[in-house]
Amino acid sequence: MRDLRLTHGGFYRHFRSKEELFVAAFEQGLKQLAHYADSAVKHAPKGGELKTLIDCYLSLEHCDHPADGCPVAALTTEIGRRPAKVRGTFLNLFIKHTGNTAKYMPGANDEERNRKVRLLFSGMAGTLNVARLIVDTGQRKKFLEEARKFYFDAVKQ
Prior knowledge:
Structural class: mainly alpha
Number of domains: 1
Shape: globular
């Protein structure tokens, strides 16, 4: 706050409630994640975009830096404790975010691709949280490697 030359009161005045601040932080986190994913996809070989996204999301680097990572993995348990109206806002942001990735997902139509990408992203967020429990770096790395293979094989079907 000091670096921005804001007082706590001056900062919080920009938001009508804590919930609004929480939503804004979540949305900003999704935007940062999307930027990271877009950068990775730009360097992916044609047809390898989805594998690249899975590899980046379930990377050791992403796992080991939760403060800079996915807000879904970091905040979903807290979001679940929020009122239904607020959870609906988070859900809409999640659906919008995953919709941008659906174009890389195999499927017969948009509805199937969107459903599959939401399930993929949800599963990977949970996997990331479990990986963060693993203390040994080698075991964590192996767990993430196995998870990447599992998810990529699952979405090819």
